[in-house]
Amino acid sequence: MPLKLGMLGMWHSHAPGLITQILNHPNEFRLVGGYDSDPHVVVKRREEWGPHVPGLRFFDRPEDLLHEPLDGVVVEGRVFENLALARLALEHGYPVMLEKPAGTDLDEFHHVQDLAARRHLRLQLIYLFRYMTATLDLIERCRRGELGAIYEYRARLPKDPREYDSYVRDLGRYRGGIFFEMAGHIIDLMVTLLGPPDSTTPFLAHHRAHAGEFIDNGVAVFGYPNAWAILEVPALEVAPQTRRIEVYGTKGAFIIPHLGSGHLGNKAVQPVEFYRERDADWQRINHEAATLQIRDLREFAACLAGTKEPDYSPDHDLIVQETLLRACGMIIAPPAPDGCP
Fold this sequence. Notes:
Elements: E1 3-8, H1 15-24, E2 29-35, H2 39-49, E3 57-58, H3 62-66, E4 72-75, H4 79-91, E5 96-99, H5 106-118, E6 123-126, H6 133-143, E7 150-156, H7 164-171, H8 177-194, E8 199-205, E9 217-224, E10 227-234, E11 244-249, E12 252-256, E13 269-276, E14 283-288, H9 294-305, H10 314-327
Parallel strand pairs: 1-2, 1-4, 2-3, 4-5, 5-6, 7-10
Antiparallel strand pairs: 7-11, 8-9, 9-10, 11-12, 12-13, 13-14
């Protein structure tokens, strides 16, 4: 039987990709219905999805969708409203897939995590790069110790300035601007490889020529006992294919020269470059690019079925969210000392 899913909030740019995978795997997943607080979003999704999903229903209230027979709920609304939607789904007894970032208030996210734990319900964050072929290769090599001790992690996720006005419209309410929108992806990988940082130093600025306050060029430096991590998110990039991750260690290095994304033009292969101290030169592998988002759905289904342990823990997700909010200046107080609440 396919996993029956409802979608609370349908605004996010990742929502169509998830729907595509649900439609492409009808024996595994089925979309029962959707809800969004914005009627314009509902009209758009009805036009896009309705012809491909017979019997798909759109509900006027989230509670009405949650009264349908569901196996789980996907939350894909605007960031500021997603935690309330996730809480509502959990209160109705449903496990949740929650789009990144996990809201704007760390305490609220922690409360939602606590609710899921008390109800013994799965709360899974959706980070698009977790199951990319190249990032999986990087994580595995680091876990094997192939790169030695990591002393530098660099990552950049530029955005196309042709969409600048939409960034201001949709993200201008968030203090971190474009950095808040995008940096969670590479913070998630940073925490996977290095754990929580000891220090966070953000450099957030508006660098477009005309006057404004929107953060369109963000950099953050994270300090570790024996490493630096440098993350860059500009909304000013005209050069194509410049999303990049670099990891340098005492025994080698690994580079993903272009990450791609679910909504960008992606090639059938995803190249990676790596060097090990015993190698004569850099090596290159052209991985077959994994289909994005189906692994997230299958991870959710497998964890609900009890056939595997989650790949990412609630503690990991909380660290990622706290680190992002600190880098965006949305948490001012320093982290509590070890052992303190």
